[in-house]
Amino acid sequence: MLSAEQIRAQVEALGPWFHNLDLHGVPTAPSHFLGDYPAVKWRSFCDAIPQDLTGKTVLDIGCNAGFYSMEMKRRGARRVIGVDSDQDYLKQARFAAEVNELDIEFRPLSVYEVGALGEKFDLVLFLGVLYHLRHPLLALDLIREHVVDEMLVFQSMQRGSADVEEFEKDYDFWDKHVFESANFPKLHFIEHRYAGDPTNWWVPNRACAEAMLRSAGFEIIGHPEAEVYICKPAHPLCEKGAVYPARGRRG
């Protein structure tokens, strides 16, 4: 077992960290601008996920340093795979799992490549990733098509209106007023940076986040936290999968 001094030295070498992990008393990001993140977020929706995942398979998409992957393994998941396109995050995740003596597989893979895994998982986590993507709806389509078997846990930063209202399923071409409503599903495009981060591209309002999930073929069965949704597959994608002009059923 590594000493606290050895862990601290490796944490320093692998930094900076976005996940604040507790590695045997050594915090990885104690000055995180969101506080004890993501633990503070996790506490707000952890009860919405089964406490006992014995025998289940889990895929953590955009796993970062592996906080959620490790939480799923601690709940008894038979197999946990964490994927991320950032090699530095994967190095952090592997080290953290090793320190915590948790058997988790971490792979370099983007959300657009999940079909290469060639299998579906009982539980898929897609947390804090959507707004970092240039092609967010494509990502949801691919997740629905290729990897979700029973449950998707989704989270995205949201901005704009938090209210949801019913809209008509169709409008006349000249009827423009609906787009002026703050509650209409809106995906805000960030051309440059938001919060100093150049990877923040699209930020939905609440109505948009929910509409995108439905459009990709998910049914929302739980909303335990303002930005978190528990979903299950509802219907297959139309036409030929996650390519234009495929979309979730609109009827």
Q: What is the fold's blueprint, element by element?
A:
Elements: H1 4-14, E1 22-23, E2 26-27, H2 39-42, E3 57-61, H3 67-74, E4 79-84, H4 87-99, E5 105-108, E6 121-127, H5 136-146, E7 148-155, E8 187-189, E9 202-204, H6 206-215, E10 218-225, E11 228-233
Parallel strand pairs: 3-4, 3-6, 4-5, 6-7
Antiparallel strand pairs: 1-2, 7-11, 8-9, 10-11
Helix pairs in contact: 1-4
Task: Describe the protein in words.
- The chain has 251 residues and is α/β, with parallel strands linked by helices.
- The protein has a domain at 110-159 and 170-251.
- It is 23% helix and 22% strand.
- It is built from 6 helices and 11 strands.
- It has helices at residues 4-14, 39-42, 67-74, 87-99, 136-146, 206-215, and strands at 22-23, 26-27, 57-61, 79-84, 105-108, 121-127, 148-155, 187-189, 202-204, 218-225, 228-233.
- The chain has a 7-stranded mixed β-sheet, sandwiched between helices. A two-stranded antiparallel sheet has the order 1-2.
- Strand 10 (218-225) and strand 11 (228-233) form a beta hairpin.
- The longest helix is centred in the middle third of the chain and has 13 residues, at 87-99.
- It is globular, with a radius of gyration of 19 Å.
- Mean pLDDT is 94; it is low at 244-251.
